[in-house]
Amino acid sequence: xxxxxxxxxxxxxxxxxxxxxxxxxxxxxxxxxxxxxxxxxxxxxxxxxxxxxxxxxxxxxxxxxxxxxxxxxxxxxxxxxxxxxxxxxxxxxxxxxxxxxxxxxxxxxxxxxxxxxxxxxxxxxxxxxxxxxxxxxxxxxxxxxxxxxxxxxxxxxxxxxxxxxxxxxxxxxxxxxxxxxxxxxxxxxxxxxxxxxxxxxxxxxxxxxxxxxxxxxxxxxxxxxxxxxxxxxxxxxxxx
Length: 240
Description:
This is High-affinity branched-chain amino acid transport ATP-binding protein LivF. One of its GO terms (molecular function) is ATP binding. Pfam families: ABC_tran (PF00005). Belongs to the ABC transporter superfamily. Residues 6-235 form the ABC transporter domain. This protein is an alpha/beta fold and 240 residues long. It has a domain at 89-153. 35% of the residues lie in helices and 28% in strands. The protein has helices at 44-51, 74-79, 97-104, 112-121, 123-127, 138-149, 168-183, 195-201, 219-223, 226-233, and strands at residues 4-15, 18-29, 33-37, 57-64, 67-68, 82-85, 156-160, 187-191, 204-209, 212-218. The chain has a six-stranded mixed sheet, with helices on both faces. Strands 2-1-4-5 form a four-stranded antiparallel sheet, with helices on one face. It is globular and about 45 Å long. The two termini are 27 Å apart. 40% of the residues are buried.
């Protein structure tokens, strides 16, 4: 394993009166894909939102490249080099695809070579470049959401359930783009319910239950141990 690009130490997060994260500890190694897995409602989305500063950690430390980002504003965390794809996509429906992408390029104009790569990964974005994003299909909106995070090279990408509810062809397109991003050397923390995608993309893995990390290790180790899958998540990666 490489040195961690992101490290969570004893992170607690409350939402209203609810204690959601209860001492989360795990690392995201640099240059690979870390899967954050677990049943619904165990705190995976809260973990990503806490890293991005959208929800504040009540206790604990979040280190990004050995820099404490726990108390930073979301805008400062983004400028530090972290891209975020929320589960709800978060696109601007009344803006065009082009305008959505332009807003995502915080460093200046969109790089033409980067844009060509995104068009090759997500062809519908080029087709509907001048169209309002609200007119896209669900799968096309997800492509736009992911492409916005990739508009500039980031040091770390946080991606929340990108393939949820989509047809196999869309899943294959999204997984292919994430694989290419991985091949470019990006670090990715990926929440994913499609375990065949998790097995194909993941290098390392952390499994959550009830607001805590209950297991971490190599994705291949989890994928090859059906009894462990049943114990941790109640289903088999092999047969999911």
